[in-house]
Predict the structure.
Amino acid sequence: MKNRLTELLGIEYPVIQGGMSWVAEQNLASAVSQAGGLGIIAAGNAPSEWVREQIREVKRKTDKPFGLNIMLMNPNADEIAKIVVEESVPIVTTGAGNPAKYMDMWKAVGVKVIPVVASVALAKRMERSGADAVIAEGTEAGGHIGETTTMVLVPQIADAVNIPVIAAGGIADGRGLAAAFMLGASGVQIGTHFVVTKESIVHQNYKNAIIKASDIDTKVTGRTTGHPVRCLRNQMTREYLKKEEEGATLEELEYLTLGGLKKAVVDGDTTNGSLMAGQSAGLVKAEYTCKEFIEKIVGEAETLFEGKLWEK
């Protein structure tokens, strides 16, 4: 399954693991990379030295390519951007901002830069800024989302840019991988299904909640604040949506979710935690190792296409 994305990144399969805060750390990232995909460490709002340690741990566990996700609103973003160079991180994905100010520094040492985008305009701007590829993330994704669906976003971005497009949002099996190719993408980014892999450090309660989820079990909070987030529905989402309807202030709403992701990932609090997950949660039925999962979806896609589409 070789194409220009796998060649660009030096990976075996065009499957990228999402940069999920509190979830995407060195254990998951190294397992995905070792399995032939692209594992990603999520810097989130973590201290810069934690990020450096995570990078070194991945390098200790695998010699395969890996990446680092940087949320550009992170107050430590400038320092983490320098760590990318100091620790020879080969690939960076970015979100929540424009990485243009770091581009020259990264390009000087050969870093591949892949921003997450939710619109055609942003994808074109990222290409002009020097991005090597873009991740077109539809509203079906878990966590922070845009408004446009993967089905319509990916082909429009693929038509608008000349760099590889990676589809994200709602993809959890080989049918999703095959569909992404048909929409013009060169690969996929998957988050929700990687949360429940055996190498994931996520609390078992969180994993079980995803496995048990149905097609209607995600809710989007924060639309009134301009920062919509998709999570599995629970007491926290019900209370949040009620407060939004009542016109609660931004401060009140933020207090409700304070530390919510840590509660879910570390403590396994499925009542008050932020169980970030995409609409694809309804497709997740079992835990696999990263290797088993990647080989499963690639095999399903190859069966659908008989191996004829990958040179696209």
Q: What stands out?
A: The radius of gyration is 18 Å.
